[in-house]
Amino acid sequence: MNKIFDNTQVAFSLKSDTELKRAYFLFKMIGSQPLVKIGTAVTHFALKAHLPVEGLIRATVFDHFCGGVNEVDCLKVVDKMFTKGVSSVLDYSVEGKEEEAQFDAALAMTLKTITFAKEREAIPFAVFKPTGFGRIDLYEKVGEKTNLTVAEEAEWQRIITRFDTACKAAFENDVFLLIDAEESWMQDAADAIVTDMMRTYNKQKAIVFNTLQMYRWDRLDYLKQLHELAKTEGFHIGMKLVRGAYMEKENDRAAAKGLQSPICVSKDATDINYNAAVLYMVEHLNQMAIFAGTHNEESSYKLMQLLNENGIAKDDKRIFFGQLLGMSDNISFNLAAHNYNVAKYLPFGPVRDVMPYLIRRAEENTSVAGQTSRELTLIEKEKKRRKL
Asked: pTM for the whole thing?
């Protein structure tokens, strides 16, 4: 397989020298665990104390990792990236809400992004988080098959209705809809709802996509079981494949409760699991669609190779590669330059409300071995190329 991800001229073609320097500074900061901890604590304090720091945050970490404060604000980033063939997924990244009015507001925003996506070729997907539509504790109770109170049952039905409203809108507007995965203890209940949505709206093709976190050792078996169900009942499977983002939390909870961790025993085991899921889905592409959400170059090359070996067109709409805005531009833009389908996640929302997402992103980058150093190496290479 021809190696394409070292081409920094393509990777950073949209970045000015100033933006490149900012990226270098940010990844230098993120690469230091003590600095991330200090920065997180200071940011929390400043926001709680209502200090005027939002302008500084917006000019640095926010503008690097986020598309804007609202969907219209994102358009300058969306349109700019699409000139290079890179699509966008608008991700309303306001987390940690607990009230019914907030869940209704998240649904309204999801419907708004679906309508927004329908009108723009550059935005083929919409997305939402299950806990954007309901309380995590309720998902956990349903997943554990705990008896619900009358009030909880009514609350659960409202969650299902929100899912259905969003999925129906995606179906009617022919917009792909990604549904993110979260903590393992709430996922069984979310999976059950999403499977019902696939039954209803994925009869002709995959519109509704669930998410598999492949750092969980049970997810490949789950995919195979879901496939058997899909064959029996006649629906298509849409699946976003990711490695996962809650590893420390998952391991800590399992240890505290004396349970077996749901996480693979090693990074290598996770990589094997991820690549096995990609292979399985490519082999059954007649009934599946893949959103390969990965910052791993080797996994990206493996999927490229599978498409080539199976005679599948690079731009087959059943296969998308996905990365986060502000990361792995060497993968995203080089894939797009070679005519693969690529979509960047563009988190958006008010600066203050998006900070929990940005802090989690910084902490994840710090804990992922090699990711930050790879970003820095590529930026340094591009800076040297530009000087020459």
From this structure: 0.94
